[in-house]
Amino acid sequence: MKSPENGRLDVILASLVLESRSQLSKAIKNGQVKVNDKVITSPSFKVSLDDEIEYEKVEKEEPAVLKPLESVPLNYVYKDKDIAIINKPRGMVVHPAPGHERDTLVNYLFDDDSQFDFDSQDKENIRPGIVHRIDKDTSGLLVVAQNEESQAALQMEVRERDFHRHYLALVYGNVPDKKFRIDAPLTRPNHSERKALVDVYKGRDAITHCVLLANNGKVSLLHVTLETGRTHQIRAHLAYIGFPIVGDTLYGRKSDSLAMQGQALHAFSLSLIHPSTLKRMNFYAPLDDYFKGLLKTFYSPKKR
Fold it and tell me: Which sign does the torsion angle of CA 25, 28, 32, 38 carry?
């Protein structure tokens, strides 16, 4: 087949065959593509108009990310060719893991978004597009990279702490301080110990900032920001200081008749630098009905 124009090999090839650009880039690196009878292994190789391109397609293996059993529409707050901002519903797992091979956000992205430029066959990138995570039963904003370049840029942004996340947390207890900081190193949960534990010797640095928004003596509403992003950080830190999140049966009360759909934790605000434009962008997501219902239960005045 002949190149229809001048340009990058991976881009031109993607316009000629029904494969994703990331999959074709991998094929080029594996030596499956020739230009004018010469094997080319660089996806950015410049081809010219009417250059002869040969693509040796290899039979696909079992995909690393499986197709979901059913299509689930995602709630996009914003989307372009580089990033997608999704308001994740409570109950949705972010990426495939044992027991959740077909029903995660990543599965739905491959099924739902034609701009999600990753290869479902790629077993090296086990979390395609994922830059940060929120727990299954936490609702709210999540940024997803649409391609490998954006994923690398956003991951660097997280490491450099240019990436800001804000949460609302409803906790049990009478929080006394208007503003406070939790600095307590955390271990990483594993299969034998599902909790993140405070450990000053073996734990990784973990810092959480909290501002009290409301308090009725029984429960308190907190605005929480992360300085670091450890697994279960907010849940573990708040339980550690004696104020577990309402509905959190792992770190708080083992059973909770008022909160049956998980912890009252919502990622309501997200601020990041766009990987292409380098402009800061801010996004917001309203509380879901479950969280609003809990607030109404705990804060509505009792009828006399």
Answer: positive
Which among 135, 137, 177, 288 is annotated as catalytic? 135
Q: 212-257: per-residue pLDDT in tens?
A: 999 999 999 999 999 999 999 999 999 999 999 999 999 998 877 7
d(CA 214, CA 288): 18
Active site residue 50: no
Same domain, 91 and 198: yes
Residue 111 maps to a domain: yes
The reported pTM is 0.78
- Helical axes 21-29 vs 9-16, angle rounded to 10°: 120
List % helix, strand, coil for the chain (3-state, nearest 5): 20, 30, 55
Total tally of structural domains belonging to the chain: 2
Distance between CA atoms of residues 151 and 106, nearest Å: 14
